[in-house]
Amino acid sequence: MEKTLKSANTRVAEVKLSYRNRVKPSERPQVTCSADSYKVLQESWDKSKIEFIEQFKVLLLNRANRVLGIYELSTGGVAGTVADPKLIFVAALKACASGIILCHNHPSGNLKPSKADLQLTKKMKAGGELLDIAVLDHIILTSESYYSLADEGLL
User: Which keywords belong to this entry (predicted)?
Assistant: First the structure.
């Protein structure tokens, strides 16, 4: 009986990290400015949701700022969504990203970042520095335009 309990206590889950990319490096879009990020994000965003519900996504970039992928972190309600820093960095680490660009939409059409948006950006930038993953920007987008915290000197 004691032997069974001991072996049951030492069982642990196996963790596997994998990232599958089916896009040739030369075909990946390159992000050199906020307008490039906006273009990539706008093309991938579900147009039926951009004015309806808030979503949070992360652009994952390699050292040459080529897009490794877009991670759809969360979908929320009309007034907000959850952006868990742990999940953002899990995606970045899985993709072996050197940089990330945070992004979410404001269904209201208001481009101004909230206090929570600014706090999250600051927290993510600090976390990225520890992991050697650059937080390059945080973009707020609407169906008509975008706001870049990097362009505005808020990063």
Answer: Hydrolase, Metal-binding, Metalloprotease, Protease, Zinc
The whole-number pLDDT of residue 20 equals 73
CATH topology assigned to domain 2-148: Cytidine Deaminase; domain 2 (3.40.140)
Strands 99-105 and 134-141: parallel
Domain ranges of the chain: 2-148
Distance CA 67, CA 1 (A): 54
SS3 90: helix
**pTM listed for this prediction:** 0.86
Specify the residue for token string 């994998």.
18
Structure tokens at 86: 């742990």
Round to whole Å and give the CA distance between 36 and 38. Answer: 5
If you count them, how many residues does the chain have?
A: 155
Sheet holding 99-105, edge to edge: 67-75, 55-61, 99-105, 134-141, 146-148
The low-confidence residues of the chain, meaning pLDDT below 70, are 1-10, 16-19
